[in-house]
Every structure is written in structure tokens, then in C-alpha cells.
Amino acid sequence: MSLQFILDGLINGSMIGLGAIGVTLTYAILRFSNFAHGDLMAWGAYATLALVSGIAALAGAAAPIGALSFGWPMIVAALGGMALTGLLALALDWLLFARLRDRGQAIIIVMASFGASMALRSLLEFLFTSSPVYYSRAIQMAMPVGLGIRVTPDQIALLVVTLALVLGMHLFMTRSQTGREMRAYSQNPALARVVGIDVARIVRATWLIGAALACAAGIMVGILVQIRPLMGLDMLLPMFAAAILGGIGSIPGAVLAGLIIGLSEAATVQLIGAEWRAAVAFAILMAVLFIRPMGLFGVAER
Amino acid sequence: MIDLLSYGAFFLSTALIFGIITLGLNLQWGLTGLFNVGIAGFFAIGAYASAILTTPEVADRIGGFGLPIAVGWLGAMALAGLAAAITGIATLRLKADYLAITTFGVAVVVQLVMLNAEALTGGPFGVAFIPRPFAGVQDQPVLFNALNLMVVAGVTLAIYLALEHLSRSPWGRVLRALREDERAAISLGKSARSYRVQAFAAGGAVMGLAGAVQAHFIGFIAPDNYLPTLTFQVWAMLMVGGSGSNRGAVLGSIVVWAIWVGSGAATAALVPGDWQARAAALQIVAIGVMLCLILLWRPQGFFGPRRGRM
């Protein structure tokens, strides 16, 4: 049996984990499971694609960095894409979720996110059609790194980026004032209000962070696989499963669970067959719900 | 004229099949407050269960028992109800969101099984030669469609009356009480989880029956019939009709299906060929926006109960 699945699983798991951070934060702070989160991912990937094409049209084609498939325009576009995805999330919140939140029925917000998800995804199909697109058509050579594992330069770069994003998130949540306030609000909203935490700011920060990380995950899928309007929908179940397996509200949990699910999916592809891959997240979800619904790092619901 | 009559009967039959699913959803959501985003999955389980039970024997597929259509319907209700019951047992002691996520997963997995378990479901090509009621008069389209409409309308009426009766029964009153004030209901000694699992399973069984009715009405099923868009259409139907009202569920289904078919026909006639796929996508955007607007402005729907609950 080839060990290649470990690398594939880690890559796949990083994308799931980055997406799951947003899901778990939205659930812990805004108190609803956001079915539109996968579509933020797809919108981020397309926004970045539009920016990359725009930069190429204005500044001409740029040489790739080292052995990577992309150059500096991709990095600029990725930052711009993350900002645009954040704005999209804020706009959605202002138009839809904030108004429903004021009425205080959590499950209505879930339903609204389901409607918004359908609309956002179909809008992408309208704008870009359902055929896949790519950031680059360049073919990368995979280098052997021992034990029968081969890796491309893009994969190494994106694993490093994921690691940096996750570390940055961890430091932000534990060291920064905003991060501490977010955790305080998720643990006890009433008490957080009493001590003077600005709830509107916490809500904005949650959307911006969740959307930016969703965009990063979308760009990773775009660079390593392809960009399609349905890419977010396909990631939704693994992301939800990771958020629940990791324990709602726990960022290290979401990342670790994302890696577990990514590795299980890759192992399934190798042992059983690629066509059953999407069932892995469901099997893990059901197992967690029956055995330990609070997840790995979660706290029991009060 | 003959064509129009025949088409009218066909349209109404399709709309009423959606009506049956929406009645099932109304039992889950309108009466009990349980959120289901895997409707297409439960609908598909019913369709395939009945198809496998009733089709004649074939060489390359399990099943093909050649049983009567009524047995297929019962099997569809049993299997879809069982799937819903398991989903409910797994999630209904937890927060409402977990049920939503799990039902979403059920639809994903059912879609995978339809596509990949070829020995059971025929894979992407689906199952053909499903026996149709009154197949003997198939060469007379008006009579055939009219008779089938009567079958579908009969099932819809039976489910409607059964649900109306259930929602007025003590059982229905417990469900309403649980939705309105869970603590009060529990303190009267009612097990919230057990009642909710029952309601979710019963709703799933109704959706499964709708799947079976449609499978026998069309005579052919394939995984493409059960995409997430279907779940979404049914939600739009219930929200337009007004959750909580069985009459609204059926009316909402007819209205939304008429808008859907009408706008589809309009784009097919007006939009040039290479833009058709895009126009179809825009149709779904419109329904999504409509669903959000109803949630914002008129959460009780247009035919909903007059005493608003939200």
C-alpha cells in the first residue's frame, strides 16, 4: 500500500480545516450553522480568479515564483479576494442574518442561510457557467520525498500557508483583545454584554475571519484541483463534520478534525474507491453524534 | 384541446406529488418545528424502494420482485420512515442544528448510493420499466392522464385528511405544545425526544410515499431527479403556503410549481440556446431570494394560520 494517501489526506484536510474554523466560529458566536459557508468559499475562489485575470490584463503576465505555478499577482489577488469575501459576508449579515437574529429564532436563520446558499451558488453558475476553470494551466512535476510519497511545490507552499494561518488564528484568539472578547462572548453572551464588550464588533470580526479563511480554503482548492460553482457545496458536509468532531467553538479542534476527515477520505479513496469518498464525512458525523456529540474538545451543552 | 387537457392533468399530478412531500414537511416543520434539508434523500429512498419491489426481474440488478404497486408504496413508506427515525434518534436529543446538518448528509449519501451501488439502484441510468397504474390505457393519453391524476389526487386527499386528523388528535396537541413551550410540555410528563422522533419518521414516510407515487407515475427514475434543488423547491412551497397549514402546503405546491414551470417555459421560449443553462440558474436564484424575503417579511406564508406563531 502506497503512503501517498497521507500527503493527499493532509492537503485535503487542511482545506476542510480552514473552512471548518469559520463554521465553528459562526456556530459558537452567532449561534447558527451556516449552510452558506461553502458558498463563501466558492465566491472567494471566483473573486480571486477575477482579480488575477484583472491584474494580468493590466500588468501583463508575471513570472511564477520559483517552482510554483503562480507569481506575485496570485498573492495580491488572494489578499483582495479574502477582503471581498469578508465584505460579501458582512453584506449578507446586514441584509439577512442580522434582521432575523433580532427576532431570535435560531432555526429560521439556518433556513435563511440555506436559501442564501442556493441563491449564491446559482448566481455563480449564472455568472461563470458550471464548467470548471483554473488559476493556471501549468503542469507541475511531483518530486519524490521518500517512502514512496511525491509532492508538488504548490502543495508544500500551501501546507506552509495553512500552518501559518492556523498558528496566526490561534495567537489571535488567545492573545489579542478582540480574540479574547470573541471567546468570552461565545462562552456567555449575557455576561459579555454586561462587562461592556461591543457585540456588533464581535459579530463583524467573526464574519470577516470566517469568510477570509473560507476564501483561503477556496483558493487552495482552486490551485490544487479546480474552481467550480459547486465546490463549496461539496465541501459543506466535511466542514460541518469537522466542526462537530472538533467540538463546536474549538479552533484547534476544527483543524485537527479537518485533518482526521481529510486523511480518512484519502484512505477511503485508496482502499475502497474514489466514488465513496463523500460518504466518509457522513459516517464520521454519525459516529460522533452517537458516541460523543460534544466532539473532541467541546464542552457539554448547558 | 385534447393535448391541453392531457397536459393539464399531467401538470396537476406533478404538482400534487409535490403537495404530498410538502404535507410531509409540514408535519415535520410546521407542526413539530423540525428542520429537514434532506427532503430529496427521503423522497428518493421511497422511489427506489418501491421501484425495486415492483419492477419485473432483471439479470444485472438485485430485486425486481414484481410485487403489486400497493406493496411498493407500503415498502417505500416503511423504508423512508425508518431512515427518518434513525436520523431523528441520532440527533433529536441535541440542538436543532444537528438535525439539519445530518439530514443534509442523508441527502448526500442517498445520492452517492443511487449513483454508485449499481447492483441495487442501476447507477446513473436508474431504474426503468416501473409498472404504471392503468398501463392498459396508455395509448389513450387523456384517459390515462386523467386516471393517474385521480390516483395522485386520491393519495393527496388521504394524506391530507390523515394529517388533519393527526394534528387535532392528542398526539398532534403534544407536538404543538412541545413546539410552543417545551419545558411546560416536558413537565406534564411528555418525552420530547420520543414524540419528535415519531413526527419526523411519519413525515419521512409521507415523503417516501410521494417518491413512490412519482416513480410509478413517470415509470422511470434516475439520480438526477433527486438533486438538492428539489429540497429547496419543497421548502419554497411550504413557506409560500404557510407553515402549519396543510391546506396551505397543497396550495403552495400548486402555486410554486406553476411559477416554476411557467418561468421555465418562458425562458425556453425567449432565451437563446447557449444562455438556457444560465437562465435556469437565475430561476433558482429567484426562488432563493424569494425564500429569504418570505422569511424576512411574511414568515407565516400566504395561506398560513391566522393566529401567527412567529
Description:
Chain B: This is Branched-chain amino acid ABC transporter permease. Chain B: Keywords: Cell membrane, Membrane, Transmembrane, Transmembrane helix. The complex is a heterodimer of chains A (302) and B (310). Chain A has helices spanning 4-30, 37-59, 72-103, 106-128, 153-175, 177-187, 189-194, 199-224, 231-246, 251-271, 277-291, and strands at residues 143-144, 150-151. By secondary structure, chain A is an all-alpha fold. Chain A has a single domain, classed as ABC transporter involved in vitamin B12 uptake, BtuC (Orthogonal Bundle), CATH 1.10.3470. A two-stranded antiparallel sheet of chain A has the order 1-2. In chain A, a hairpin with a 5-residue loop joins strand 1 (143-144) and strand 2. In chain A, helix 1 (4-30) packs antiparallel against helix 8 and helix 5 (153-175) runs antiparallel to helix 8. The model of chain A has no long low-confidence stretch (mean pLDDT 88). Chain B has one domain. Chain B is globular, with a radius of gyration of 19 Å. Chain B contains twelve helices and no strands. Helix content of chain B is 73%, strand content 0%. Chain B is mainly α. Chain A binds chain B through residues 27, 32-33, 35, 96, 99-100, 103, 105-108, 110-112, 114-120, 122-123, 125-126, 129-130, 233, 236-237, 240-241, 244, 275-276, 278-279, 281-282, 285-286, 289-290, 293, 301, and chain B through 33, 35, 37, 90-91, 93-98, 100-102, 104-106, 108-109, 112, 115-116, 228-229, 232, 235, 277-278, 281-285, 287-289, 291-292, 295-296, 299, 310.
List the uncertain runs of chain A: none
What is the strand content of chain B? under 5%
What radius of gyration of chain B results from the CA coordinates?
Answer: 19 Å
Helical/strand content category of chain A: mainly alpha
Give the largest chain-chain interface (CB within 8 Å): A-B, 46 and 42 residues
Give me the Rg of chain A, rounded.
Answer: 19 Å
Using the coordinates above, name the CATH class of chain A. Answer: Mainly Alpha
CATH architectural type of chain A: Orthogonal Bundle
How many structural domains can be distinguished in the coordinates of chain A? 1
| Major sheet size, sense and barrel closure of chain A | 2 strands, antiparallel
